Task: structure prediction
Amino acid sequence: MKCKLLFILITLTSFQSFSQINKGQWLAGGGGVFSYSETANSGQYTNQKNVQTAINSGYFILNNVAFGVNLNFSYVKNSDPVYGYGLTGGGLTSSTGGLAGPFVRTYLLSKQSKINFMFHGAYQYGVIKNNLSSRYFYYSPYSGNVTITNRESTSTNRTHNFMIAAGPVLFIHPTVSMELLVAYYMQKQESMDIRTHSFLTGIGFQIHLGKGTKSDKKSNQD
Result:
């Protein structure tokens, strides 16, 4: 698993709006990444395609406290040719994964604050399917024979993901917030008993929807 760190400097400014973190309101967010890389080494070319998407939706059960669900999808494909010592061929490997789970987040400051601070905790359970397809041609200079080897394999791995994050939140609009988070991330793979620990920094956006409860409307008017 590759871990990419993104460090972004944010200039914080104040606005004339209330933050939408009241009981009875909703929040939603999401994002996606697509990357393609190609490597050339002594006439051999390898490439990788990577697609990742994530969405989340939550509901404020209390002022400043939201529960919700997050979903992730990932797809990675690698092409690795091999040449040398009479061996010619290559392989294709792909990995497809889907994860889902609950999250909880809490905002520390009041809803009148345009700049807030947030804690976020999440758990995800998912399945990752790995496919390998390869074909190699081996030519023996002694016998003149050509040997063809095909290999096909599929494996399924179940994973558990845990994340704890915290950071400042800037409400750039009454219904839009921008978050700069520092997170600890742990992934456990069941079949291979592998644990991966990561520290990340990233930026995200959330959309806040709904009008809140009647008591919250009255307090805002006051």
Q: What stands out?
A: The chain has a mean pLDDT of 79. The helical segments are 214-221.
